[in-house]
Amino acid sequence: MAHSLKILFFLFSILSIIPLSHQLEQHPLDSLTPNEFIRVQAIVNQSHPTSTTNLTFQYIGLNEPDKHAVLSWLQNHPTTTPPRRQAFVVARINHQTHELIIDFSRDDIVSDRIHHGFGYPSLTFQEEIDANQLVFNHAPFLAALNKRGLKLEEVVCGSFTVGWFGETKQNGRVVKIMCYYLDGTVNLYMRPIEAITVTVDLEAMKINHFQDRLVVPVPKAAGTDYRESKQKPPFGPELKGITVVQPDGPSFTIDGSRVRWANWDFHLSFDARVGPIVSLASIYDTEKQEFRRVMYRGFVSELFVPYMDLTEEWYYRTFFDAGEYGYGLCAVPLEPLRDCPANAVYMGAYVAAQNGMPIEMPNVFCIFERNAGDVMWRHTETMIPPDLITEVRPDMSLVVRMVSTVGNYDYINDWEFKQIGSIKVTVGLTGLLEVRGSKYTHKDQIDEEVYGTLLAENTLGAYHDHFITYHLDLDVDGCE
Ligand SMILES: [Cu+2]
């Protein structure tokens, strides 16, 4: 939901660039390569020289080729040429939103459309960082901290998108900056500095509105730090370790972006906006002795998170975690043995920085076989004495996982392929709550609508929803 300065830690190093010729044969649905990001940057920069224009890349990704072109290429592969490889770019050029298509075979921009309607491109990490930084030099903000007796060095801020409420006049590309207080905890989200509204015009990168409405106590730090090292007894009973061992190695193969496991075959790619994309999933039918198509393309298309709080500093919180912050952009490196089991294999991906250069995101996916100890199918036959026939098929599956941390919130995104032929999608919702600071210390004091539940002293858990929508282009046994 909200983004903090902590995103700095998720900015990954730029990797050395691998020459295209050394790569495996490219699939038309493969994510853009680092070299392709660089070519996009060069082509757009050349057409809009940065010396005379104000140019930022808000999004660079694959311009998805036509489905029929992909399917016909697959059918006639390798005798036909693959569909044209193109990039789709959303750039701010001289304060206008351009949607560009770059064709790699022509090394040129083949479409350049200026977006005039409502809606703005997703934020870049850089502009969030720049916007958050502005408050620290804004005298009214410093005075507001002073009034509350807060130390500047313990304050961290995040950029919040402002939603759209039917206004007919464009408000410009703005974010509101919300700040939090550390001072004894790393759980900044439990310590909001309420009732201060700082609005930043991202184009001018200036604060254009400031309001300090009232003083609300900052919830206390005690008991909020979630780090294991900071926990105090009593602890629950300790468990003995469990590990998954596959002495003969995994049963899946990864060939570029193509993953094969059991009777499944699919293509996996990554996008800054939507995260993992599973394409061309098909399953081998042992009786028909052929692959049967199941899904052409599937991904999380949006995560909409509206808050039901009408107060001045909260009403606008209607976040589009994919479209505004980037579900893929906010993906974090997976922690081996904790985020994924011991038998997992990891894959990296690339996104574009604001200047268009590729940024490597290591360990963005993990792929592993799951044996959860469940039964896929079983039967015990007792009706044919003296025989006792017992047949059990253990449930094995293949999981593709990504974790996206959008500010305070962590989404655990799984695509699970099962031997019975089903694909199971799950999103685990975890992380930290976005709470509202309050004057109340006990629920009996509350005599008004507070749009939430008092969770602790001065801490309201704000009512909100997470709507997760999927794009699922299912092609069960074909398109017809
Ligand atoms: Cu939530």
UniProtKB/TrEMBL annotation:
Positions of modified residues (2',4',5'-topaquinone): 409
GO molecular function: any one? Answer: copper ion binding
User: What does the entry comment about cofactor binding?
Assistant: Contains 1 topaquinone per subunit.
Domain Copper amine oxidase catalytic: start-end pairs: 243-478
The answer to whether keyword Cell membrane applies is: no
| Active-site positions on this chain | 321 (proton acceptor), 409 (schiff-base intermediate with substrate)
Where does the Copper amine oxidase N3-terminal domain lie?
Answer: 121-218
Q: Which keywords belong to this entry?
A: Copper, Disulfide bond, Metal-binding, Oxidoreductase, Signal, TPQ
Family that this chain belongs to: Belongs to the copper/topaquinone oxidase family.
Mind telling me which PANTHER family this protein's record contains? Answer: AMINE OXIDASE (PTHR10638:SF71), COPPER AMINE OXIDASE (PTHR10638)
The name this protein goes by in its record: Amine oxidase
User: Which source organism does the UniProt entry give?
Assistant: Gossypium barbadense (Sea Island cotton)
Q: Top-down, what is the taxonomic lineage of the species of origin?
A: Eukaryota, Viridiplantae, Streptophyta, Embryophyta, Tracheophyta
